Each structure stands twice: as structure tokens, then as C-alpha cells.
Amino acid sequence: xxxxxxxxxxxxxxxxxxxxxxxxxxxxxxxxxxxxxxxxxxxxxxxxxxxxxxxxxxxxxxxxxxxxxxxxxxxxxxxxxxxxxxxxxxxxxxxxxxxxxxxxxxxxxxxxxxxxxxxxxxxxxxxxxxxxxxxxxxxxxxxxxxxxxxxxxxxxxxxxxxxxxxxxxxxxxxxxxxxxxxxxxxxxxxxxxxxxxxxxxxxxxxxxxxxxxxxxxxxxxxxxxxxxxxxxxxxxxxxxxxxxxxxxxxxxxxxxxxxxxxxxxxxxxxxxxxxxxxxxxxxxxxxxxxxxxxxxxxxxxxxxxxxxxxxxxxxxxxxxxxxxxxxxx
Length: 329
Hints:
By secondary structure, this protein is α/β, with parallel strands linked by helices. 40% of the residues lie in helices and 16% in strands. Helix 4 packs across helix 5 (159-168) and helix 9 crosses helix 10.
């Protein structure tokens, strides 16, 4: 697979399509057995995947344990990203916490679970309004001096915080949701990242399954994160957004690819420093997603598709009020 360089001042080279690992342990039931996900992660590497994205909060802890067990023998051949930023008590995430002592505790735990001496890319999972960004950057800088962290980034923070953090300690990447279905980052975030030379790693590039065209229901189990997300919980919104799927389906059929591949290729075509990390727990889907990196459309084809997409309004918010409250504005 081709590669992408994230960041200019502190560059990190990763494969073009990474693997988001949250679905291995939560959010989209039924949740697979841990042993099956250890095998899947190792098989993903054998298929050519080398960029794995997890977090302390995934499980909590289980996501990192899976990668640690699966990849320890090939550690020098992969890039692993993980995250800190939540207080975890008795195995439950109880709120935001980016105090220096919490960051260090999280990193030490991540290193142990990942069975490694270093973290390739460490993100602040969400901004903590009670901890100045200066304290976060200073703590991460010390961890980098110790060789425990090689690069750092932030997730779903304001451009104000990104500018401040980058001036203190150069950011390699920012992680945010970005897809054909959610394009808010194009207004302010992407121009700032381009200006500062920071890469973008985008989660949910397939709209939590919606852009595959295979998701039909508007009723989800209690454990499914989509249950309380307006774009999924409203049958009316799902129906209204069908125009987007119709457009994708027609273009995918014309190119002889799947809708998922077209959605991923669309992201890769936006900027050379953007890396999508679609999640899956199935090897067939993993291979499908990775092959999207080889999908080519002529400039005029992308222009025609973007003109069609611009004419299609998107209905429904991506987050509910509680989820949105943790996104720094």
C-alpha cells in the first residue's frame, strides 16, 4: 500500500489506509471475543496493514491489550497510535482528565499493555477544560525526551488549541471525524492544518457504516453507540440522506468498486496528508478498505462527483448533546 507522511516539523510515515480498532472492543455489537480480535489484528498485519489506532479508553484497556498480544513480534514493522485523556475508575470511563500525573499513568499503562517501549503517535483524546494546554504539551514533551513517545497529536479540539499546542510542541497529526457524510472540518480545521503542516487522521470515514450502503435500520441495541446519534436514531434522517447513498452507489457502479472504496478514495484525494482509519473486524472488509488506496479517478471525475455531493444536503447531527459537549469549540 502507498504511504502518507503526517506532519512536517515532526513527520511520521504511515500506510495510506489505517485500521481503527474501537469496534474490536465496543460501540458496534455484537462485540467479538478477545482471542478472535488478537488473531484478526495479526492477520491484518499479514495482509499488509501497518497503522493501528487504539486508545486507553477502548474497553477500557482491552483494545491496547489486543494489539500488544497480536503485534509484539512485529512491533518494529508497524505504527501504533493510542490516546490518553479520560479518567478511568474501576474499569469505567468517568470523565475527562489530562492532568500531568494522569497522562503519565496512562502512558505507562499503554506501554505495558501494548508490550512496547514506545508509542509511535500519542493523542490527547479530548481537550480537558480544567488543564491548560501548556501543561499537556510539557508533559508529553518530557515523555518524548524519555523516548516513550515519538510523535503527538490531539483529537477533536478547537483550531485555537491546535495553534497553541503546535507552538509549544509540534503536532504530527490531529484526529477528527471526516467523511463524505461529515465535512465540517473543511471550514476551519483543514485550512489551519495545511497552514501549520499537521496531518489529519480521520475516523469514521465510512460514516459508522452508513456509507457502505448496507446499513438499513434506525433501531439499534442499547450497547450500540449509534442508538443515540441523531443521524441514526431518526428514521426520517436516514431516509432523507438516501440521496447521498444513491449518488455514491451510482458512481461506484460506474467505477467498478464498492461504495466503501469510493468513500475512502474520496478522502485520500482531498489532501496528500490525510489518512483515513476505517474500522472493521472482518478480513474481507479490511482488504476491501485497503484496496481503496489504489482506486484512481481522473480530476474531472472527482470534480463531477464533488459537484453532485455539494448539491445534496445532509440531515441530522452526528452527536447528541452529551457527546457534543466533549468536543472543544
